Amino acid sequence: MIDIIREYWQNYLFSDGYRLSGLAITLWLLVVSIGLGFLLAVPMAIARASSNRFISGPVWLYTYVFRGTPLYVQLLLCYTGIYSLHAVHSYAMLDAFFRNAMNCTLLAFTLNECAYATEILAGSIKATAYGEIEAAQAYGMSKFKIYTRVILPSALRRALPMYSNEVILMLHATTLAFTATIPDILKVARDVNAATYASFQAFTIAAVLYAAIVFALLWGFRRMERRLLAFLKPQGH
């Protein structure tokens, strides 16, 4: 039994030809969804922090919907719901995009991650000390420079602890990818369990892999926090 499990995990934990391992698929889902979600969240957070309701309102609605509904439902909508629409089949590009399980999974993960990251960054932007903004205005900076040189750098630093938790939660959320038949770590563990009925060994290995990734992420974020948030520590006399 152990030999069978070892053979399965050797085949799926490491790349084999053109097939990516379950570990690589999980990391790919995490990196792409976090990266794209963050890039989309920065301008949306600026809009969300705006005092103009016509600008902040649509962003609030978007974050409310995606934070108020389960990611599992969002994944099902992207994977099966949207593809069932006649308008999608009418365009070859849309048809090809939503026919691919990986594209649908990344779309759902990215949109969900963007919603949470937007609220985290918007909160940090709103919490920026007004004295910093006044100092920038005294230097004659334009509104664009104030955002790029003062508000955003300060907000991104202060949002780091909360954002690190969101990244870890996104890693846990990647376990839903098996719903779209994506061969991530959990999907591999389920395949091993189905083939060998060794549930404890299969899912224990999966748990160890997820824990190892989390510890690596925590280590990286803690180093970044010590470096980027050092100015918040009390200064000795």
Descriptive report:
It is a single chain. With 237 residues, the protein is an all-alpha fold. It has a single domain (2-232), classed as MetI-like fold, CATH 1.10.3720.10. Helices cover 78% and strands 0% of the residues. The chain has 12 helices and no strands. The chain has helices spanning 2-13, 22-48, 53-68, 71-81, 86-89, 92-99, 101-126, 130-138, 143-158, 160-173, 185-196, 199-228. The chain is flat and about 70 Å long. The termini are far apart. Pfam families: BPD_transp_1. Residues 23-218 form the ABC transmembrane type-1 domain. It is a multi-pass membrane protein.
The CATH topology turns out to be MetI-like fold
Top CATH class: Mainly Alpha
Strand content: under 5%
- Please provide the ordered H/E string of secondary-structure elements: HHHHHHHHHHHH
Number of helices: 12
Please tell me the overall pLDDT. Answer: 86
CATH architecture: Orthogonal Bundle
> What count of domains describes the coordinates?
1
Q: Main beta sheet, described?
A: none
CATH H-level superfamily: MetI-like
Kindly state the number of beta strands. 0
Supply the helix-strand structural class: mainly alpha
Low-confidence stretches: none
Cα radius of gyration in angstroms: 22 Å
Report, as a whole number of angstroms, the end-to-end distance: 64 Å
What is the global morphology? flat
Helix content: over 70%
GO biological process, one term: amino acid transport
Keywords: Cell inner membrane, Cell membrane, Membrane, Transmembrane, Transmembrane helix, Transport
Subcellular location: Cell inner membrane; Cell membrane
InterPro entries: AA_ABC_Transporter_Permease, AA_ABC_transptr_permease_3TM, MetI-like, MetI-like_sf
